[in-house]
Specification:
The structure is a single chain. This protein is an all-alpha fold. It has a domain of about 70 residues. Helices cover about 70% and strands about 0% of the residues. The chain contains 2 helices and no strands. It is rod-shaped.
Amino acid sequence: MLVLLVLAIVVVGPKDLPRMLRALGQFVARARSMANEFRSSLDQIAREQELEELRRQVNELKRVEPLREAAREIEAAGRIDLDRQGPGAPSIGSPEGGEAPAPLA
């Protein structure tokens, strides 16, 4: 750093050195400002993408939940209590005619 200062004094001269350092400081400030603006733009884009992803997931869940509810209702309605069959209902082990199957010889 000291070498750069000595080189600047030799090249620019002590008279113009403050003006050059001021211009350099302004340039660095503008460069930092642009970098911060660029970074904030990227952060905003990332937040928007994340928000869009969350919206898509919420919409997907909204579509899935009614399907789950319908599946639960269908499952509840489709259950059959095999122990409580009505009169005249064929049993699972016998043919519909009510006859017992012939023994195998």
